Amino acid sequence: MLDRITRLEQNVRYILESDAVDFEDKQDASAKLEEIDQLAGQIHRDKPFERFLQQYIARAHRDYQSGDREEPLCRCSYAECDLKQGRLPGRVRTADSLQGGIDEFQERHPESVVLLEAREEWLSVIGEYRQILREVYADLEQARAEAEPRYKKV
Ligand SMILES: [Zn+2]
Asked: Can you tell which superkingdom this protein's organism belongs to (predicted)?
């Protein structure tokens, strides 16, 4: 998924850095990219999924404490459960793969609701970012196709 995003980003950058499209089309594309700047930041920082999980869990915990959230973060019976205390479990963080760590954690905490929510949310962040990138790329490709005949005449 992230590979495909990187490829899309490269394609977009390639067109933006070329003379194949008009300045106005480049500006339109740049404006759209600015709108997803925050998503790009979330996706391109170091350990993006881990940091997203940490923030999601901390926020859910705060909301639960203040009564803004009704659903407990985890429905296990362990008082010491990291999730219930608003922390990403160490075992998840240090696992070889984050997803593997989540699967393992869920063997003892099968209803770790917040982890499932966070993963869904992360996929939707990536999906939204990719969707807008695709639109920008499609617009640029179209602009290039329309600009091409004129350049050939020169
Ligand atoms: Zn638990």
From this structure: Archaea
